[in-house]
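Summary for the steering committee. The consortium agreed at its last meeting that each partner would contribute one worked example illustrating the joint modelling workflow. Our contribution is presented below. We chose a case with several input lines so that the handling of multiple components could be demonstrated. No manual editing was applied between input and output; the record is shown as generated.
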Amino acid sequence: MIYLDNTSATRVCGPALERGRAALEEYWAPGFQPYKLSQDLLAALDTRYQIIYDLAGAEPGDSFVFTSSGAEAINQVHWTAFLELARKEGKCHFITSAVEDAPMLQSLKRLEDLGCYVKAAPLDKTGRIDVQKLAELISPRTAMISLSFAHGLSGVLQPIEEIAALAKEKNVLLHVDATYALGKVYCPFQDLDYLTFSGDRLHAGKGTGGLFAKAGRPLQPLIVGGIEQAGLRGGAFDIPSFLSLAAAASQASLGLDLMSLEVARLRDRLEGELVQKIPGAHVLFSDSPRLPNVSVVAFPRVHQESLHYALCRKQVFASIGGQYAPHLARHLAAAGIEERVGETALHFSLSRNTTQEEIDRAVSIIVETVENLRLLSKDLF
Amino acid sequence: MIYLDNTSATRVCGPALERGRAALEEYWAPGFQPYKLSQDLLAALDTRYQIIYDLAGAEPGDSFVFTSSGAEAINQVHWTAFLELARKEGKCHFITSAVEDAPMLQSLKRLEDLGCYVKAAPLDKTGRIDVQKLAELISPRTAMISLSFAHGLSGVLQPIEEIAALAKEKNVLLHVDATYALGKVYCPFQDLDYLTFSGDRLHAGKGTGGLFAKAGRPLQPLIVGGIEQAGLRGGAFDIPSFLSLAAAASQASLGLDLMSLEVARLRDRLEGELVQKIPGAHVLFSDSPRLPNVSVVAFPRVHQESLHYALCRKQVFASIGGQYAPHLARHLAAAGIEERVGETALHFSLSRNTTQEEIDRAVSIIVETVENLRLLSKDLF
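What follows is the complete predicted structure of the assembly.
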């Protein structure tokens, strides 16, 4: 098996696994009782927050909420904006980008159901948000710009510094979902108001996610009910999952150099070999700033569904989107890529664990598969 | 250590621990990709739902949402009622009981912030809701009655059948939080519209909870963002935690007889010994239908805070409330118990793992501690 779909989910890393497993047995006690069993829980948390703060570039005064997923974190940010800005100040306009995952889109859709307005900033041909056009969408009633730092499928990094400067100038809150970027590239949280992420793309377990709010920004619980997490999230604090996330964050911090050097090298190797060995194959978004582990390659005269299916059968797991993400072809269409190219493209995403041997094996399987499919489909194109 | 605070949290049981640990390594793949790694996840879930349905007495047509806590489940029920009844039909009145935990109270408080009205039905001297007075609170605009099946601190079971008949007659939805009752007594879900529970009181991990909605009842996601769990809860489905909950539910089903026989016997032994050996000690709510594992005992001429603290020092962990629950003294005051009695009371809650040896050891430590404290406080009473 060669797993090249780390945008959809990542394997839980060893330290996260070990920490989570041990903690599941150790830290079952209630959180706020005066007896030792309970007080020991606090000691277990001690330095663990710092690791996650450091990874996101957050300061001690910023707030962090441990959530059960990135989706929950996104919902909480939007809910906060609804309660604090839409209801109290009448600022009920929201701006997102033209290509976002389901949690972002559906959470904003819910705000629309509650009387808010949402507009989407278009992408240019490089897969990046057109900041000029984004600026034109801002009105005096705009509460928040809410978008992804990097799109999981294209891997393209958005011009966050520019957008942050714009948000600051216009006095609009900026929420960035860093699910695909955290642990891959440096996260400029000091320029943002809110940052969210999902642990399952960071080699932590599925029941993990987080939300940072810069000091002074409003923050309301989505789940109310108790004093856990300073009243910012009701329900028992899931210490085992939190410790597992912290262990994964620590590994991600240690692996940042590896990601930008070795993983990027393997990604480039994958792209270079495919382009060289498959006539017409070409890399999309290669001129844009991209995540170091993501690649989208177009294979003219092969339909992506056929190629994806054939590769699955050969245990090479790539992606054409779906699940939370849009279909890859729709994603590419939103970036202005022609349909006949977009429908031949496949997404590959590597992880710290991907080896050169896997890449080379994947290349030869892909080359062979594309050749076969082209024989079958030669009359169709 | 003798742990007699299973109302606050329960130790994760062996099968839940093993299942959760194994699944954390096995089931990390994305949920909805066409490749085998992903499809295998569905097979893992196969029969696991049935165990949880059986424990709650739910039918195949009823909906179940796996949540990250009981608090989240309660929030989701109230949010559904807000969207579907308060906003659409103007039914914005809610009724709860005079003694509830923080998730119930704060979630209803949020509905008040959004324009709803909440009233609390009083308890009678037996710790039970006065159904006659509850009936008087119902108006044509009442959307939902939302309360606990059993109060965690008193252990008193509410007259759910009566309340269910009333709700049906008045065409009001009935939500029951069964956090303290599930796995302890039979749950009459067929009479209810919604049932919620928290896994951490069922010997599962902290990041687990659930929500049942009877077939045909409205149900909206609290966390939106994707097709997971039939669109009823966004965010990656946390299969390891779900399997861990199912394993715990299976153990709870097997242990129901043990709970109503052996655990009840040990609880009665604890009460009998304390009453016999400590002059003036008496059991509260002993004439009410109670959970088999809970006991509240008053120790006249000893303040509960002192006794609780002294017992904690001797590694006997009982409870005086707090955390999600109200303080025990306030809880007892709401049931009309005199303050000077309520402030001498301590809550004990057993589990399937509690042994007779532990009970006997606890009794002798409690007896000795009460005697010592009475010497110290003889001039105060």
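Residues 126 and 288 of chain A are 6 Å apart (CA to CA). The first helix of chain A runs from residue 14 to 26.
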